[in-house]
Amino acid sequence: MKKYKRVISILVSIFLIWFVIHTLIITIDGLNDDLGKSDVVVVLGNKIEPNGTPSVRLQGRLNKAIELYEKGYFDYIIVSGGFGKEGYSEAIVMKEYLLEKGISSDCIMVDEEGNDTYSTAKNTKKIMDQRGFHTVTVISQFYHITRTRLAFHKAGLDDVYTVHSTSYEARDIYSLIREFPAYYKYLMI
């Protein structure tokens, strides 16, 4: 019995060390933007408030897209998100937000079927192929960047830049922990 407890203790210790190292790598990777000129940017969807406005987290992503668009890093924006439990299309709400901030409708493409990161990656690949685009920038929260890049590579996109939103919340701790199993799930896709 003592032998089994020791083995279990060693395995738990290895798992915890692996988790901590992985979480540190995700954090460092996510906070170090890989910014370059691209054909298009994809803003990944997130929660819509019950009144139909983007959450603070989503506004942070959209504001980062506006900032980089105005600096000339890309000419087109894909807003991607499905229908949330609040009853709104994330992508449509995102488009409306961008329009209110002065972004031309001609520059915005809508993906209402981006229900998860991998769906967004596959849908982005289709849009890029149709438009003849080759490079993409992805904007999300820092903890989501590593998995997002993995999803886009698995969808067949090799020239992927990543930028994190500068919006932070206490909930990010939960989200960072959740990224550990989510990353390995995407690794198996």
UniProtKB/TrEMBL annotation:
<dbReference type="InterPro" id="IPR003848">
    <property type="entry name" value="DUF218"/>
</dbReference>
<feature type="transmembrane region" description="Helical">
    <location>
        <begin position="7"/>
        <end position="28"/>
    </location>
</feature>
<feature type="domain" description="DUF218">
    <location>
        <begin position="39"/>
        <end position="179"/>
    </location>
</feature>
<dbReference type="GO" id="GO:0005886">
    <property type="term" value="C:plasma membrane"/>
</dbReference>
<dbReference type="InterPro" id="IPR014729">
    <property type="entry name" value="Rossmann-like_a/b/a_fold"/>
</dbReference>
<keyword id="KW-1133">Transmembrane helix</keyword>
<keyword id="KW-0472">Membrane</keyword>
<dbReference type="InterPro" id="IPR051599">
    <property type="entry name" value="Cell_Envelope_Assoc"/>
</dbReference>
<protein>
    <submittedName>
        <fullName>YdcF family protein</fullName>
    </submittedName>
</protein>
<dbReference type="Pfam" id="PF02698">
    <property type="entry name" value="DUF218"/>
</dbReference>
<keyword id="KW-0812">Transmembrane</keyword>
